[in-house]
Write a structure and sequence with these properties.
The protein has 242 residues and is an alpha/beta fold. It is 29% helix and 24% strand. It is built from seven helices and twelve strands. The strands form two sheets. A six-stranded parallel beta sheet has the order 3-2-1-4-5-12, sandwiched between helices. Strand 4, helix 3 and strand 5 form a beta-alpha-beta unit. Helix 2 crosses helix 3 and helix 5 packs across helix 6. The longest helix has 14 residues. The protein is elongated, with a radius of gyration of 19 Å. The two termini are 14 Å apart. The structure holds NADP nicotinamide-adenine-dinucleotide phosphate.
Length: 242
């Protein structure tokens, strides 16, 4: 029996857990940070909450006799990925990073790429006055100093934000490009702020910005940890068979 720990919190991680459901000789534990309310329905065992850093994760790997780790966390969840790399190295457990392919610019795209949220906030006033801000709740504060800008902020739930002029729109992906276009038009958006997350679920706003001729302030991904990586679930399944 191979015991696989999936570090999750993404649709890809959920897809992987489902793909491994019923595969003989494989037992899956999915791990979630616990940022969202409720536990998603996933096959196999699900554990929720931090491990207590790399040391805690290494301990978990030993205590649970984990054979392999698939880091299927979000490309911007840099801390857990670094900790997984460290813990797996320490516990001598093979680890694979499932990293969804990055979006590629297409003709008509007007991307301004920056490294980090502070750089995005600094670059924003030169690009527009009414921004569609699609970063995580923990990253909104970085835009507090971007004065003179109205923010349309999409969040999973309504929340008070440290911004001078904003409106929250709630929603959870996947987001359709036509609906994104209507939302941007209705709010007279002139710039979109996005993480370079990749994946289909949040691509609608990128396609919509292209259609409307709007610039996208694209925050580059943090560098992933060194080591093996896969771009698709099939590649992960192949790695687990090997
Ligand atoms: P992060 O900054 O990399 O991690 C912060 C801490 O959260 C980690 O040190 C760890 O706590 C805990 N943690 C994160 N993922 C975990 C997991 N799968 N299982 C157990 N503990 C986990 O992560 P984040 O950016 O806050 O994201 C949190 C979760 O939301 C991730 O699992 C990620 O896949 C998902 N997510 C993130 C984004 C994003 O844009 N960042 C978007 C969609 C989904 P300890 O140090 O105590 O172990």
């Amino acid at each position: 029996m191979t015991r696989v720990l999936i570090l999750g919190g993404t649709a890809d991680a959920a897809r992987l857990a489902r793909a491994l459901d019923g595969v003989s000789g494989v037992e899956v534990i999915s791990s979630l940070a616990g940022r969202t309310e409720g536990i998603p329905h996933l096959p196999g065992r699900v554990r929720v909450g931090g491990f207590g850093g790399a040391e805690g994760l290494a301990r978990f790997l030993r205590d649970e006799a984990i054979d392999r780790v698939v880091d299927a966390t979000h490309p911007f969840a840099a801390r857990i990925s670094a900790q997984a790399a460290q813990a797996c190295a320490q516990a001598a457990i093979p680890r694979l990073l499932l990293l969804r392919p990055a979006w590629q610019p297409e003709p008509g795209d007007r991307w301004v790429e920056v490294d980090g949220f502070a750089a995005a906030a600094a670059a924003l006033p030169a690009l527009g006055r009414r921004a569609f801000l699609t970063v995580g709740i923990g990253e909104v504060a970085a835009f507090a100093e971007a004065h003179g800008i109205h923010f349309l902020v999409r969040l999973i739930a309504e929340q008070k934000l440290p911004l001078a002029d904003y409106r929250v729109v709630t929603g959870k992906g996947p987001f359709d490009a036509d609906a994104e276009q209507s939302l941007m038009r209705a709010n007279a958006i002139d710039v979109v702020v996005s993480k370079a997350s990749g994946g289909a679920a949040t691509y609608g706003k990128i396609a919509a910005a292209r259609a409307l001729g709007l610039p996208v302030l694209m925050i580059r991904r943090p560098p992933p940890p060194e080591g093996l990586s896969a771009g698709t679930i099939d590649e992960v399944l192949e790695w687990l068979r090997g």
